Amino acid sequence: MAIDRQLFVIFGGSGDLARRKLIPALHRALSSEGNADAVVILGIGTKHLTDEEYCALVEKALIESGLDAATAQD
């Protein structure tokens, strides 16, 4: 089932809870339904990160949660 465009805001987006639980859970849920392109994730936190740095953080979090590198780049 396709969904309308959505925005997920993660407060503490670079924190431990986001890295270990929220980001992998969102990735698994959205990938399994084929809705990943309809979602934008906005991470808000106290660390100053560029888009590229945050993407690297997200990729590392996905790999550490047990997803392989190819899956994490989707």
How would you describe this protein?
- This protein is an alpha+beta fold.
- It has a single domain (6-72), classed as Rossmann fold.
- It has three helices and two strands; from the N terminus they run βαβαα.
- Helix 1 (16-33) links the parallel strand 1 and strand 2.
- Helix 1 crosses helix 2.
- The protein is globular.
- The model has no long low-confidence stretch (mean pLDDT 84).
SSE blueprint and pairings:
Blueprint: E1 6-11, H1 16-33, E2 39-44, H2 51-64, H3 69-72
Parallel strand pairs: 1-2
CATH class category? Alpha Beta
Q: Radius of gyration, Cα only, in angstroms?
A: 12 Å
Identify low-pLDDT runs: none
Estimated helix fraction: 40-55%
- How many helix segments? 3
Number of strands: 2
**What oligomeric state is this?**
single chain
CATH-derived topology:
Rossmann fold
Strand content: 15-25%
Return the average pLDDT rounded to an integer. 84
Series of H and E elements: EHEHH
CATH architecture: 3-Layer(aba) Sandwich
What topology, given as strand order, has the largest sheet?
A: 1-2
Brief characterization of the structure:
By secondary structure, the protein is α+β, with helices and mostly antiparallel strands.
What are the defining features of this structure?
single chain, Rossmann fold, 74 residues
